[in-house]
Amino acid sequence: MASNYTGPVPKPTPETKPFWDAAKRRELALQFCLECGQYYFYPRPLCPQCLSRRVEWRRVSGRGKLHTFVVNHRPPRNFPTQTAFAIGIVELDEGPKLMSNIVGVEPDPQQLRCDMPVEVVFEDITDTITLPKFRPRA
Ligand SMILES: [Zn+2]
């Protein structure tokens, strides 16, 4: 269940709560605009393409490709990690990009490459917060 994670914990807002609720169910969810038919991220009440409020949350595939990445060797302030880790921007199959950790692979530029296929995995960090992360997929 919850890991021994001791770093900062996301605080859901009314706009982001559906995202975190979905992650808790081990689902990745994005907002979808019913007016222009596009997904978008990060969560907000207006479609960033056409400014429509006719938007809804939908479960998405959790699959995408690694758009770009960095291997971080210095733990950020308040984060407990002491080892190198990979931060990536993932371009989801549905279009939007989001930033997360890339796991299940050595945080090494020899092991990571742009455009490599990735899929979402979920890590419970508290009883209520689950983080979506991404790992390489075959
Ligand atoms: Zn729209």
Structural notes for this entry:
- This protein has about 140 residues and is mainly β.
- About 5% of the residues lie in helices and about 40% in strands.
- The chain has one helix at about 15-25; strands at about 30-35, 40, 55-60, 65-70, 85-90, 95-100, 115-125, 130-135.
- The protein has a 5-stranded antiparallel beta sheet with strand order 6-5-4-7-8. The chain has a 3-stranded antiparallel beta sheet with strand order 2-1-3.
- The two termini are about 25 Å apart.
- Zinc ion binds near residues 36, 47, 49, 50 and 52.
- The site of zinc ion has 8 residues, from loops.
Write the layout of secondary structure elements.
Elements: H1 17-24, E1 28-33, E2 39-40, E3 55-60, E4 63-72, E5 85-92, E6 97-102, E7 117-124, E8 130-136
Antiparallel strand pairs: 1-2, 1-3, 4-5, 4-7, 5-6, 7-8
The structure holds zinc ion.
Structure, briefly:
The protein has 138 residues and is mainly β. The chain has one helix and eight strands.
Q: How many strand units?
A: 8
Rg (CA only): 16 Å
| N-end to C-end Cα span | 27 Å
Q: Which ligands, by name, code or SMILES, are bound?
A: zinc ion
SSE pattern: HEEEEEEEE
Spatial arrangement of strands, main beta sheet: 6-5-4-7-8
- In DSSP terms, counting alpha (H) and pi (I) runs of 4 or more, how many helices? 1
**Helix coverage percent:** under 10%
Approximate shape: globular
